[in-house]
Amino acid sequence: MTYRAGIIGAGGIAGLGILGMHDEEDIGRKKFEASHAGGYAATDGVELVAVADLDEEKLSTFGDAWDLPEDALYADHAAMLEAEDLDVVSVCTPSFLHHDHVSDAVEIGDPDVVWCEKPIASSVSDAEGMIAACEEADAELLVNHSFRFTEKLERLRALVQEEDLLGDVHSVSAQYRMELLRNSTHLLDTLVYLLDARAESVAGHITGENEAVESLDAAVDVDDAGGGGFVVMDDGTFVTVDCTIPREDSSMTLNFVGSGGKLYMNNDDGEWRYWGLEDGEHTEADLPGIEGAWTWDEDYQRAFPNAAAHVVALLDGDAENRSPGTDALRSLEIIVAFYLSEYTGGRVEIPLSRPLRDVTITSW
Which of 77, 93, 86 is nearest to 113 (CA)? Predict the structure, then answer.
């Protein structure tokens, strides 16, 4: 059996390519494996059969790039959901549209899996609505925090959570490039994934800077910007977050200090280091079962085929969701709380109260 996949939103992460990540002459012409379409193409048991987008020029370019016939291209996503018998729907639209498109997917199309781009939504209430809609429809909501679909990070989480690599984690310092929703959601999801914890109290700062407006020719009327602050997790871990740095100057780094050792992760430069702690002495050691460090060129490229294979496993009933909406909500809460803290001048407690859950932070 081959499962049928459809995509809502024919943009870069769907399969056209992204300026800043790919060469401009390749965008819309080359098949990029690090995309939803690329993940499906690299995976046995699932086939991309339809795509929807309001932009007819973009839609046509996507169809040409991925060899889709004209009758598989839809200007109306609802028409695609009604006409096609889809087992999985990818939602690759801007984050402020995720709620409507995920809800439409399960209410109109009735797929068993919705593979939604990160961040999960632009407001906590929208994210909660998406989770509820998928639960009601008995559909899996899989959020594409793509680092979770890399073997090294999966193994590292097992070391931290199951083999007590770090003992009780006391402190984490994390750093990445702006902007918070577009980029830093990766950093914060890695944090909550490795700690298996949720934020409890947040104090934040927003710079207002958004380099993607100029460098990536993005829309200017968005809230997404650089920022950071401190976060106290519900397991007691104290976290400092700095996501204010321009892309060209940045490295994604996390430093963990625990009762059993310390861990340094630098994903941009491909360096992971671990020191065990015994009798007050830190001794550097290899990470068991991990050869080398995480890299964009190797691990990130495999993340999309790995995620698509996970979609197939979910459809087969052979897996437990590795990136559910409930987890994606944890990173979004931190980002929204940074903004709330900046504009109220105080600390923000999580879970957010009802009015604060409705605050929307726009991105693309």
Answer: 86
To the question of pTM greater than 0.90 for the whole model, the response is yes
Three-state secondary structure of the chain: CCEEEEEECCCHHHHHCCECCECHHHCCCCCCCCCHHHHHHCCCCEEEEEEECCCHHHHHHHHHHCCCCHHHEECCHHHHHHHCCCCEEEECCCHHHHHHHHHHHHHHHCCCEEEEECCCCCCHHHHHHHHHHHHHCCCEEEEECHHHHCHHHHHHHHHHHCCCCCCCEEEEEEEEECCHHHHHHHHHHHHHHHHCCCEEEEEEEECCCCCHHHHCCCCCCCCCCCEEEEEEECCCCEEEEEEEECHHHCCCEEEEEECCEEEEEECCCCEEEEEEEECCEEEEECCCCCCCCCCHHHHHHHHHHHHHHHHHHHHHCCCCCCCEHHHHHHHHHHHHHHHHHHHHCCCEECCCCHHHHCCCCCCC
Look at strands 73-74 and 46-52 and give their pairing. parallel
Q: Tell me the pLDDT tens digit for each residue of 300-317.
A: 889 999 999 999 999 999
Do 182 and 216 touch, CB atoms closer than 8 A? no
Q: Give residue 71's region: left, alpha or beta (phi > 0; psi -120 to 50).
A: alpha
Q: How far is CA 266 from the centre of its chain?
A: 18
Residues 6+ apart with CB under 8 A from 50: 6, 7, 68, 72, 73, 74, 80, 83, 84, 86
pLDDT tens profile 157-209: 999 999 999 999 999 999 999 999 999 999 999 999 999 999 999 999 999 99
